[in-house]
Amino acid sequence: MSDRAVTFLGRFRMRLRDPRFWVIQALVIAITIAHGVLEVTHNDDLPDAVLLPVSTYFIPVIYAALNFGVEGAVPTAVWASFLTVPNLVLWHSGAERPGVTTQFLLLIAIGYVVARRVDLETAAKDRAEAANARLSRAQATLEEYVRLAVDAQEEERKRLARELHDDTIQTLVVAKVDLDAVADEVHPAATRARLEKVKAILEATIDSVRRFSRDLRPALLDDLGLMSAVEWLVDDLRGRTGIEAQLHTSGEPRRLEPKDELRLFRIVQEALHNAERYAEASAVEVCVDFGEDVRVTVSDDGRGFDTSRAFHDRESARGLGLLGMRERAKLSGASLSIESEPSAGTSVTVALGSADRTAAAS
Question: Are both 239 and 119 inside the same structural domain?
Fold first, then answer.
């Protein structure tokens, strides 16, 4: 037996367990009974009335085709034909028999064609649903990989920041102290001037490494929370660049989940970086609202950009930064909106609610 026949029989057995299939067969029997009654009681005034039930068989056959496909339509059409055989033998003769037989052959053919079309549409729908299910699983797996990659990146940043603070910066500080001691013992003015120049370079290096360490993972974020870390970002931007950076808060500040605080901090950090590096802004405002949701908005008066193009520009640092912001917001279940127009400034808003955190955790 071929695979197609095995599949047909398997599906047919499934149809036998569906009550709708038996309702259709009961309708076929009712039409057959009506056919027999008309055959017995018809008169010569309505000679074609006996053919009306034969045409009525199309109703259950087409219904079976639409709901059960080939394995529903063909058995129903064959069953209707079988039930009509006694009427065909007892009350029809001559040219009537080929006519009725042709009607039933046509009934079977139309039922098969309609049912075959339904089967093809159903198979295409099943394939599409299976493809969507595979795509959803692949997307979920990809999101999990992204989450793990971001978490691993943050852990590596934390480790590097600790090593820079505990090792590199301490070594540079010891070298500076030794240099101070040497400078005090040197008397020639030229030599002392050169040592002072080296000392200034060393101090600048220490400040740069310290700032780099804080950028990697500020201790304030782990120790005091999001607000202190954001305040440090704003003060650092204002002190380094002269940009008029301001921080406004509303509501009662509270601690969030460590990973949520870290992701919000990175989004604010990236937004301020963009305002400094690309927007050429002269003023930046950071607003943190601790309501039912935690909402952070970073606005600048810079030159702005085309957001639709920037998100698709994966070769530029800005494009990658915007994608990173979006992925971090998604990992926390937060909503992220970026509004920007050329010469009209940029506004970045991220909102994290309790429902969002529950959805992200699940």
Answer: no
